[in-house]
Amino acid sequence: MMNMGLFSGITALLFLATAGPQAMAGIDSPVPAVSERECAPFEDAKCTSCERRDDQIWLISARGVPCLSLDESLDEKNLVKNLKYWRSSTQDSKWNKSTLENLQADDIQHMQSVVWVHGDRMEACEAFDVGRQMYRELVRCTTDKTPIRFIIFSWPSAKTLTRPIADARLKASRTLSAGIHLAGLLKTIPQEDQVSLIGFSFGVRVIATALHLLGGGDVAGATFTDPVIGHQKYRVVFLASAINCDWLEPGHKFGKAIDEMESLLLLNNYCDRILKHYGKLYCHCARRGPEALGYTGMTISHLPEADQDRIRQFNSSGFVGKQHAWRPYIYSPQLMSMIRRETLGKTVVSP
């Protein structure tokens, strides 16, 4: 029987590192809990790796939005009206409040959009900087300077409860509401636009929820009032996916999501020390709970051939090690090269 000291140690580790740089001791100092009103706009170091003055960088936040009523059909207009919008200049790195109308007005050129969804334990202020780091690494080595719109989708994932397991369970429940709002946002993007989605850890749940809804599925009984017909499919990248390993399969929780994907790249980590204990989200003993997609990978041999062809998986443990954090993925030249090819579809130069 596991003694209480060992169990407490494992519990302290579980989900402690999820998605936040404060999880990596010695690399970043702790970030205080502050609100968006307190932390933005702010300035960060100017990117000198490339000049992309025509790109757009947005942060769209679902933090603090009213609770959803899931006993009726969903309307994207109601879903996006309470979101908070910020836009950053690529020249001076300042963040300024904006609106959905401005986002839509800037879409006259039908730019390619890339949406980044962070994981658990990400403070509101932190999401601005982490998202910008993701953007910089994504465009760092592209030879094609065609402008893109980079959208940071921020959801309420800041630490709330003292006990790590209880806190992780709370955030897991919040991903459904966040995913519904993301689905509403994606429906506002013109069908002509190419859209790519990148999610880390619990951010994968947010994206999977959104795509399942867009594919005609329901979440807690809620569906869209009007189906999405004839729109372009999404290029998707999942990093260290903190969802059940079978949830993307047909007939399962997010079984409609695959139908909405042009392609899916799964960067898994079979040595991830946090995802190894993923089953504790559901029961006291991790061995009795389900396994995480980002830990085991996805079984695709029984899927239709068309679905198999659009799914690629890669074991990232050789580059990431046992860490469960976003930083090793985006700062690995090899992994980021794969992410660029999948999301941008551009020719890249090796770093």
Q: Can you characterise this structure?
A:
The chain has 351 residues and is an alpha/beta fold. It has one domain: Rossmann fold. It has helices spanning 4-13, 36-39, 76-80, 100-105, 124-139, 164-188, 202-214, 293-296, 305-309, 317-320, 327-330, 333-344, and strands spanning 56-61, 84-88, 95-98, 112-117, 148-154, 195-200, 234-239, 261-268, 311-315. Helix 7 links the parallel strand 6 (195-200) and strand 7. The termini are far apart.
User: How many separate domains make up the residues?
Assistant: 1
Please write the CATH class name.
Alpha Beta
The helix/strand order is HHEHEEHEHEHEHEEHHEHHH
Name the strands of the widest sheet in spatial order.
Answer: 3-2-1-5-4-6-7-8-9
What structural class do you assign from the helix and strand content?
alpha/beta
Major sheet attributes? 9 strands, mixed
In helices, the fraction of residues equals 25-40%
Compute the CA-based radius of gyration.
19 Å
What is the typical, i.e. mean, pLDDT?
A: 83
CATH topology: Rossmann fold
- Strand portion: 15-25%
Show unreliable segments.
1-49, 347-351
Alpha-carbon distance between the termini? 49 Å
Q: Give the second-level CATH assignment, the architecture.
A: 3-Layer(aba) Sandwich
Shape: globular
Please report the number of helical segments: 12
Could you give the count of β-strands? 9
Short description:
With 351 residues, the protein is of the alpha/beta class.
Q: Which properties best describe this structure?
A:
351 residues, alpha/beta, Rossmann fold, 9-stranded mixed β-sheet, disordered N terminus
